[in-house]
Amino acid sequence: MSKTYVHQSIARAVADHGVTTLFGLMGDANLFLVDSYVRECGGAFIPAAHEGSSVLGALAFAHVSGKVGVATVTHGPALTNCTTALTEGVRGLTPMVLLAGDTPVGNPRHMQSIDQRELVKATGAGFEQLRAPQTASRDVARAFYRAQVERRPIVLNMPADFMWQQVTHEKHVLDVFTAPGGVAEGDTLDQAIGMIASARRPIILAGGGAVDAKAQIVRLADRLEAPLATTLKAKGLFNDHPYNMDIFGTLSTPAAYDLIAQSDCILCFGAGLHNFTTDQGKLMTGKRIIQVDVAPDAIGNSVHPDAALIADAGLTADTILWWLNEAEIAPSGFTRELDGVALTEHPVGSTRTAEGCINFVAALERLEKVFPENRILVTDGGRFMTEVWCRISVPDPRSNVVTANFGAIGQGLQEAIGACLAAPDRPVALFTGDGGFMMGGINEFNTAVRMGLNLTVIVANDSAYGAEHIQFLDRKMDPGLSMFEWPSFAETATALGGVGIEVTSMDELEAALQKLDGVKVPALIELKLDPMDVPRMRI
Hints:
By secondary structure, this protein is an alpha/beta fold. It has three domains: 3-168, Thiamin diphosphate (ThDP)-binding fold, Pyr/PP domains (Rossmann fold, 3-Layer(aba) Sandwich); 187-344, 3-Layer(aba) Sandwich (Rossmann fold), CATH 3.40.50; 360-528, Thiamin diphosphate (ThDP)-binding fold, Pyr/PP domains (Rossmann fold), CATH 3.40.50.970. Helices cover 36% and strands 18% of the residues. It contains 19 helices and 20 strands. The chain has a six-stranded parallel β-sheet, sandwiched between helices. Strands 11-10-9-12-13-14 form a six-stranded parallel β-sheet, covered by helices on one side. Helix 1 (6-16) crosses helix 2, helix 3 runs parallel beside helix 5 and helix 3 crosses helix 15 (412-422). The chain is globular and about 70 Å long.
């Protein structure tokens, strides 16, 4: 074992965990680490224009790839620039490691010094201190382990004055089973099975915590003759099932919403049951609710279930199925009453809009048909997003990247970059608003160009901050303060090295799609929308 410097040991420790892509922005405390990772470990470094973008890129990379995302920034203001992105990762339950430099231990009055532990704590992310030069590889391994089992970002805090100290590098990977969850048993299980067995109109709801249990949940649904629904985070999980209801809650189709109202039992796997899923609790009233989750803190946050099982989703589904068969419980017959096609059809309504603008719903319906089926969908925050979630399909949950876990706008393009790099052979479609693109898109569009990514950006440009525009209108107030005269996003995209096209009608949309066919650089379609005619958010 040869002597090496700490920055080299950290880079090797990251590579020891199978990391091939590192997002980041270099500074005093991490530039030598990045250099070692690229030159000595053969890793790819994705340089962002803003530190928060590095974290967001790593979050999307983790979601799409199923691996731990990794980013690096330097100290002080670099880390403060990451606070919104770290909170997004915490709320999204995303395993990610941020290698954050810290000012030298020997210089407590350093200009960029800040209490980084307290800063990270405020975001909800985990904090892991690099304890000493000799423990570098062990501390990296601990950060990766925690990211996996805690399902959140972990910040590894690295003092800058450690980086050029010599150590002996040793490979350390905490080889621990990271998918805990037992088999449900006992009186609560008996009560849950009794509720399910007596239900005449049961529905099975799967959330992001159950995407790996698809096969077991489908077997149970078929045995019960129960339709299947998902939360937004599990969108696409049951695409191929004849009684797929798609998203459960405020994003449901009218037919699915009515069906939920008729049901008498909801069996929930890995779903947090927040207010949007339950429509402020209205959809759960008068029903038996059974909630299955490996996370104890997911139980009872907004809806109190009649039976709660802290257990693995797939094992629990199999256990329930076994007992139903043992007791020879008859199927409910619920799906025999249903029109499976109608359950996933959202009405289009009028396609008329103001002169010089394109109807947003009509544009979405057309884009749904022309985007490749193996697409990855990324949505920024804004009032446009719920129509996108309802009308643009995805092949599976990992292909649906939601950037609104913290309710922030301006995070979409950064996460789209991470999605592109996690699946370079697949097309990525980002839907963003004008405010979100101005806030976080322009500064990273050229990053996508530099990396040569297979990315199409759809900007829903209503020249307004939509949520605020609606509130002014609802109170019969002048919405002028919410209105903006932005520059041409299409021209900006072209100037940044991509291809941008402004669209004001369906004919122009068709022409744009033809023009962009075969384009090898990131493309942007700017949809000019009437701010008075953008559909309301379905939340």
